[in-house]
Amino acid sequence: MNSAGLIRTFIRHKVAANILMIMMMIAGFWALAKLERQMEPDFDVPGIYVGTAWQGASADDIDRSIIEAMEREVRFLEGVDEVTGRSREGIGELFINFKHGTDMAKALSEVESAINNITTLPQSAERPVINRFTITDELMELAISGPLPEPALRALAKQVRDGVTAQGVDRVYMSGLRNAEIWVEVPAAELQRLDTTLGSIAQRLAQASTDVPSGTLSGNIEKQMRSMGRQDDAAGVAGLTLRTDAQGQRVTMGQVAQVSDAFDDRGVTGRRNGNPAINLSLQTSKNGNLIAITERVDAYLEKLRPTLPPGVTVESYDRNSDALEDRIGMLMDNAVGGMVLVMAVLVVFLRPWVTFWIAIDILVSFLVTFAIMVLIGQSINVMSLFALIMMTGIICDDAIVVAEHGQTLMDKGMEPAKAVERAAQRMFWPVTAAAITTIAAFGPMLMMSGTTGQYVMPLPAISIAVIIASLLGCFLMLPSHMRHALEKGQKSPPSKLRVAFDAKFISFRDGPFTQAIAWATHNRGLTVAAAVTIMALAIGLQAGGHVKFAFFPQPEGNQAQLNLLFSPGTPREVVAKQIDEAEAALYRVEAAYGLPRGEIVKMTFGKLGVTTGNNLPEQVGDYIGSMKVEFSVADDREQRLPDIMKKWEAETKLLPGIDQVIFSTEQDGFGGDGFGFRLVHNDPYVLKAASEELKKVIMTYGGVSGARDNLPAGKPELVVKVTPRGEALGFTTENVGRQLRDAMDGAIAMRFAKGDEEVTVRVRLPESDQTEALLASLKLRSPTGMQVPLADVVELSERPGLSRILRNKGQRTVSIFAEVDHLKGNSGEIRSDIEKNHLPGIMEKYGVKKDQNDGSRQEEEFWSDFMMGMLVSLGAIYLVLAWIMGSFARPFAVLMIIPFSIAGTIFGHWVMGADMTIWSYIAIMGMAGVLVNDSIQVVSSIDDRIKEGEAVESAVVHGAAERLRQVLLTSLTTIFGLLPLLTETAFQAAFLVPMAITFVFGIGTATVLVLLLMPALLMLVEDAKRGIGWVRGRFGRRQPVVAV
């Protein structure tokens, strides 16, 4: 059965269309219940993490001894795209990014093999941990705080962790929870008396505290034998035998050392309202339902809170489900508003019952789209919702074309059933072709690479799904319902208002509008010249900086951080006091606004021992503190975040000894309006010097803030070099370093599992012996057992330290970042100016190079994908048009609509005072297919007239005029569908508004161009064809000269 027969069957059958509609609705409602609700689309980062701990080692030691060796082994494995190394005190990390499509199971096996085959790693370094990258959805944060001892707070945190896990939370990461340890503190005098070292005691302890399988005893009853010696508490460790004296008496650990249960004194601790606190970060897998899991967690917490001790609180913050619900609510409000406006437009031009069935067609098409979304693994998220809103106006285009043509045929006297059948069959191929061009425009987006491509993917996927669903409804369901609607309309005469409006519209169409097309067509050269002039003006607006470009929009967020760096050696108690003061200052600012506590400051959480936030590379140390702050969302407060931050900084009283205070904010949305550079050099200290100079340059530009690098200064380093005398006594760098590390940090005797955590047994000096005079009095044991003063065998020198060193593709690097207030500056322009006028001088002065894959790499990848996508899209659209028109020349007249419409989008951004962003250009790619849809209908009408014998110019004029109502309907429904979003003022809609501007102004411009410019272009094509024909006739058929 061909398409005409299938359409005829559904029109004439009494219930076929309704059965199909019911089936579609059932599938849609089922899918709607199944669809996951997520903050962002799923995306995968194919990568592998390798982490290695080396106690007491500096960042430079780890970089040279561990990261360089590992990077060399994995850098050229199959599929590796980029290898980044990160070294900081005690820890080395390698991040191996693979190309998309790589077999990650095989890649993991190859990485494990390569790392395990390295034989040059330091013996005292721990075994590398190797894992694949995992992407999860952040659910929320929980802050547990109160006046409890640390063991009780830990127990409560674990109880909450287990409770939320039972509610469907996949992962819980706890911070502020220090690792449990058993300390064996041996005084230096006792070590001298026993003539031993911390390392020797640790080795003896490890041997004594262990369980050993001892075989099987055979006999009548077979028994398993085990030697039990492991001790897992302080009392048990204290009772272990260290040695036996000359009289045969046992000397236990407890007799020579203070043995106690403790916690890692260098671990991170939390702070909230002056009390100790532990933070729980709740995460769920990418296929989890964010909102449903959050509801279950909230219900659990409501039951838990009445059982908590007095003064203890469990507070949730950074709740992604709230943000998701706000965005879904905002988008749904815009969707409903857009749908109402679309229906209003349809009612103006079409009969009420026709409008009603078009509305039903839209509803069913969306329900079918939901079913397709489930089948292709999509979810409800910000991008998919925007795609649905964008398609609200486009989805009814097919139905409008068929319905409008059917109503026109009936108005000319044709019976309703025949009119609908003729309209559906006549418009099948033009509508199908229009759908194919739209798919051709959106399709190349599916090929965009990288994280941006994965983030954008729901837009083309869902748009294509909507188009397919719309085609099904338009030709199988709508015509039958249209027949009944027109029959009802035929029985009841139209209202006087409808008759008057139709008469006025026809009068306008056949009069002034047809005359305007005739003038534009007759003066086609002037018409095209005017359009070119307007396009030139639009290009000038952008080239002149009146319409700026920002790669990602940067809406105001509701997160802020404070990072405090005191002088190394500052006690934690001082850092804690500064955090408490900063917290109090923030609430004083809130009170100064005349607001009650908690109105805009929703949450604060302090950390001792580590920095926080994405705006600063992670640094650790007792002299470091930080605070994370959550404010109410920007749309719920009058105070702007930059103003709050300025007042907070001014109100905070700083304590003596503080070296650096950094107040910063995190922007909302994907990406941010900032820029960066990456410099390369083998010496990290040279990189640091170049970075400092570049940061000073960056901060001279207006609107720039937060210039920083990822190579932070650290503690001063004491460099130890073994002297010739030390070498003669048998000392090496390795054994000197081990003994110094034992003296400074303690020697780890063993680690064992106890319950759900790992306990470390550490042999160390008591705090009373850990003084500045320790190095002066420290003695080292030579390989022969001789005790030698440290100063006799090593030379000590001091140099500045770096707390972190980074590598990328085998080279040491530093990255410099900064944010730009888009109201005061443009990141692209600032970056270009620095590259042109300042960066070359810095590179020459310090001998550094600019990494070509620096902060601009993401932009370069996008532009490469965009240009390729546009070429593929335009090529596919051209082929479809050539097939429909039966010509290779005429499609160019239609395709010219696209660049002229892009000029309209530039004017739109200028009128709205908005920057063009990555989302503007993504919308342009999708809009290209939509723009030519009206052109296809107009050209189809023109061709019909030419086939009937009408003169070409007359056919062009009257064929374009004939499609006025159809073109207006398809364009206005798309524009009005997006109009609420275009006027949306919510901060969270900032990255969607440029897309709405692009569609509204681009399609609005295209409407005028299709009706006025395209006829002129078609006539120019005809002129060109006539000219070519004349040339061929004049010069192409000469008779050959015959010699006489």
Automatic annotation (TrEMBL):
It holds the Pfam family ACR_tran. SUPFAM superfamilies: Multidrug efflux transporter AcrB pore domain, PN1, PN2, PC1 and PC2 subdomains, Multidrug efflux transporter AcrB TolC docking domain, DN and DC subdomains, Multidrug efflux transporter AcrB transmembrane domain. InterPro entries: AcrB_DN_DC_subdom, Acrflvin-R. One of its GO terms (molecular function) is xenobiotic transmembrane transporter activity. Keywords: Plasmid. Coiled coil: none annotated. One of its GO terms (cellular component) is plasma membrane. This is Uncharacterized protein. It comes from Niveispirillum cyanobacteriorum.
